[in-house]
User: Fold this.
Amino acid sequence: MQILKSYRETRAVQYPEPVSIVIVKDKGSRYNPMSASWVTFTSIEPRMLVVSIGFERYTYELMQNQEEFVISIPSESMSAEVEFFGSNSGRDMDKLKELGTLTQPATVIDGVLLAEASVNYECRLTGTLKTGDHMIFAAEIVASHMHADLVPRLFMLGPKHFGGLGI
Ligand SMILES: Cc1cc2nc3c(=O)[nH]c(=O)nc-3n(C[C@H](O)[C@H](O)[C@H](O)COP(=O)(O)O)c2cc1C
Assistant:
């Protein structure tokens, strides 16, 4: 039986939820990571995904001048990164430098991969769609990487609560 509830209450019971990190280059040489839950795979051939980014984010501003970005799937040990990248703005600081997060160069695009992540995807923008107060950025995956030790991904287990699924 279904009971009528507010949207806020229905969202609160949808954990665990996957979380990702989108990394976009600024006009200089800095790469800005932003935590993003709203990332979805959308096509098999070509390989494509979308990420939904709020208009107020620095990352949205950067995307106005960028055709390329990385979607990183953080590993279980990266909850501090996800919290930090999701609660601070690249307008105010170099987030990667601030945490001393290990990176390695992307292989096809001008980007960086997060070295400790489970998976990293190099992406090229193909289109956008405005949805309310966020913009959806659709992209083709042009290179895929995974951690050499097959480390499991991180999930959001509840509000501000991150961890692995233990499987
Ligand atoms: C777990 C988590 C998931 C988030 N998911 C999204 C998302 O999908 N889209 C979005 O625009 N912001 C999302 N945010 C908020 C941004 O990460 C946050 O506003 C960040 O500080 C913006 O950074 P920037 O100004 O450097 O772009 C999320 C935050 C957290 C902690």
Summary: The two ends are 31 Å apart (CA to CA). The first helix runs from residue 7 to 11. The domain at 16-156 is CATH 2.30.110.10 (Pnp Oxidase; Chain A). The pocket of flavin mononucleotide is lined by residues 19, 32, 34-38, 52-54, 57-59, 82, 86-91, 134, 156 (CB under 6 Å).
